[in-house]
Design brief:
heterodimer; A: about 450 residues; alpha+beta; six-stranded mixed barrel; 17 helices; elongated; B: about 240 residues; alpha/beta; Rossmann fold; four-stranded antiparallel beta sheet; 7 helices; about 35% helix; globular; binds adenosine-5'-triphosphate; binds magnesium ion
Amino acid sequence: MYKYFLAVRYLVSRPINLIGTIGVTLAVWALIFVVSIFTGYIHEMRLHVRGTASDLSLLFDRSQDSFAQVEPLLRHEGVRAIAPRLSWYGLLDPVRGTAKKRVVAATAGQPTANFFQVVGIDFAREAEIGSLRDELEAVPDADRRVVDGQRPFLIKGKQPGMLIGLSRARAWDVRRGDSVALTTAMHTQKQKTVSLRTIEEPFVITGAYSSRHHEFESSTVLLDIETMRRLVPSRGSHRDHFDEIAIALHDPTRAIEIRDLLNARLAKAGAHGQIAAWQERKPIRRFLDNVEHQRSLMSLVLIALIAIACFLVLATLLMMVSEKTRDIGVLTALGSTRRGILMIFLNCGLVISTLGVGLGVLAGWLTCRHLNDITDWLETSFGIKLFPSEIYGLKEIPYELEPRWIVIVAGSAIGAVLLFSLIPAAVAATRNPVQALRQT
Amino acid sequence: MTAVLTAVGVHKTYRLGRREIPVLQGIDMSLMEGEIAALVGASGAGKSTLVHVLGLLDPPTQGTVHYGETDVTTLPTPQQARLRHEHVGFVFQFYHLIPELNALENVCLGSMMTMSLPGWLSGGRRVKQRARELLSKVGLEERLRHRPSQLSGGERQRVAIARALIAEPKVILADEPTGNLDSNTAAGILDLIWEINEERRISFLLVTHNEAVARRCDRRIRLRDGSVESREVGRN
Ligand SMILES: Nc1ncnc2c1ncn2[C@@H]1O[C@H](COP(=O)(O)OP(=O)(O)OP(=O)(O)O)[C@@H](O)[C@H]1O
Ligand SMILES: [Mg+2]
């Protein structure tokens, strides 16, 4: 009983022990807060990537197979939806369209023509894969929202429709009904001669889509896949070519199993593509690996903070033990065992660490919850931008408080501090009580 | 009369580097139930050392210590700690109170040693009540919440005596309990010791440099060159 009683009394009468507690608090706070942002970022990226990349995706070399031929091979009870895609790249120039005056005013001398990924989609099928339908309806600007949520590319007149990212549409001040020019080029082969064919086509903006991802919105436009097939012709005789098939599953955790099954089927049928789970696709994977690597590096740096906090606790407790030498003699005289003496100082470590961890977790949780308020405030009052959205490509700073991570951080912080407290505790327990008593 | 504390052939040798310093060289003595014995001798004679050996704070180099009939020198240390708690109380020249605790808590501490946390939750009130009684016994009912730094030397020693009493020991080893006090205050402390001895039949081993105090005791044990020079029976 005296082990807890004395530990607490020793601590409260020595404000210097707050240093150790604050050290632990800071370390735990940083570990929770920083890693939660990383985790949130990774999570957000996955969500975003998944929104467009689906659970599985069949990657094809363009125009070798026809969608009608491949589709039956992909039927499976675990497959929820499939959608063909055909992508290319091009320069998009709004100044050469009808919105010229407005765009020139909005962009004020900055170059307007930009390099875009142009993705042809089958809207009816695509809407089943991800959240595109919602992304169209979520557009708050009435003059940038599509008119017909079921047929977003539909437009009167000859020019084909195009969906543009909301942030890009705003930056350019492009609205529904404006036309933009798409310029692109590709190699074509006739008999043995390869030639570069340039294409320039006007498109009408039929609306904007709003995604979670700034970067994606400002560099991707969507076309009807039929339009795209005309621009990027097939190499074979069929007209329903594609370069990717997005596959959504009922149960995403079965991705690997279904991928293997479908790949075997495709190989047997002599199709040319390979199915990859979304996280296996090279650029996505490299990107996510990269961020995750940064997260582990960061946690390593932050773990050093815990080590520093441990040394602080060690130093303050060692000081306390040498101050308390006489008490050690008295307690032994009163009938305390060496173990009891050890426990007093170990309990000091326990109190310091649980208090520090508790405060740290609370602080980490609060900062995460009010992160966007805090950064807004920093920006408006001091002009400091902690997380420029241009760099991170996100509109809000994401965070994700993983209970598992909090438990790991809390547990290891308490464990580490206790381990370090063992040193002063052992010093105290091995003090000779007689010598301690001889001190006046 | 039965002996509550006995030393048989106790030797204590300190080692300083390669040099051996023999402090106690064959001490035979015993303390009877209910008596107050004085332990006297020149400074450096080994009085404090003997007190520590008798209180199991320092193991003898040779020889045995008995509590009642039991040889306690060979017991494992946790058991020794338990016996030290139950059998002997200590009073020191420099009081040795815990500075962070008030008088009441310092006295309670003497009882907490063997109590578990649940034991304290259920029995703590009784312990506090007893501590309060003991503190009023030693005349400090008005000083319960005072820290040691807020008490005079004599008052601190009274708290230390109350702390030694709370575990109801058979023996109290008092190493110069008045060594740091003026004669009036010292007389008060000594009267208290005699009163407790009368009331509770607790034996005292009283280390002192004061011949008058030594004469007042039932018996005097005189240490010289590491052994007992003489045992003189007191007047009363
Ligand atoms: N740890 C130690 N190492 C070496 N010598 C020691 C040690 N502790 C005590 N001594 C020696 O033992 C001798 C006895 O010391 P002790 O404190 O028992 O004397 P004392 O009779 O209590 O004296 P005083 O009346 O001054 O309190 C002294 O000479 C002292 O120097
Ligand atoms: Mg002495």
